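User: Hey, quick favor. My workstation is busy. Could you predict this chain's structure for me?
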Amino acid sequence: MRAVAFDIFGGELDLRELPDPTPTPYGAVIRVEATGLCRSDWHGWQGHDPDITAFPHIPGHELAGVVVATGSLVRDWSEGARVTVPFICACGSCTACASGDQQVCERQTQPGFTHWGSFAEYVAIDHADVNLIAVPEDMDFTTAAGLGCRFATSFRAITEVGDVRPGEWVAVHGCGGVGLSAIMIATAAGARVVAVDISTDALHLAERAGATHFVNASAGDAAAQVRELTRGGAHVSLDALGSPATCAASVESLRRRGRHVQVGLLPGAATPIPMGRVIAHELSLLGSHGMAAHAYPRMLELIRAGILHPDQLVTRTIGLADAGKALAAIGSVPGVTMIVP
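Assistant: No problem, here it is.
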């Protein structure tokens, strides 16, 4: 198969021929019809993820496509099925999975991290009966691929973890794919959204996604600007980027008893948190890590009803030959980039 791979962390991302994957007894192989370009893939390429231990390695973890092979013990899926998957693929049998919390599975696998990913013509997914999600016939593969990481992660972060309620103020720090998804979902939930970024182009996309107030973080203290706009601070603030600056700004953007949700990855150095403010204002610090496959139907129904429009977040579509260069330059093009092998 054709695939984009690298041989050392930070090394060249080139298009090459690699062996086709085969399914495990409980797994499936999917022909990739679309896969998203995500900052998490950049972190993996840079060596920030301990799950990547062997080379060559293929990145890519949000995908949609068609089942082309299944293992002998797969019951619910067959060749030809249109599917997507959560980026966290669960085992289905550990204590967390038995509790319905597959997004924190104790034996989770992640395409593009624990094994070869979806910047390729084919990808293998284990425990297919637990992890595969049917893609509606009227949904484009590029739309479906964007659900697996950014959109589903934001959906759970806003609706479940952050528990956003109508009329609340929500601040979203970082208006990339995760942030734009969160803005759209929070707006649909009836919240008033403040978008925070350093890019004017990203803030324009945030307005299209539903944000009504905007903070250019390059113009000064972002948290202070959010507190002023919201007359005391946001009820919920989400760090969608993942940096010491955006994490601290998200916490400091909150009003008393507010809820901070950390979604963006924070690799490397320790991140200082203003714990004095956390204590004095009784703030809640929450982490959100993807969404289990069994939770997708509610989100899919909102998409099919026209309440959510993840397709509007896709700003560019490229081929595999351009995927390596695009990953190396991630963040330079606002919105969501889709790769179509």
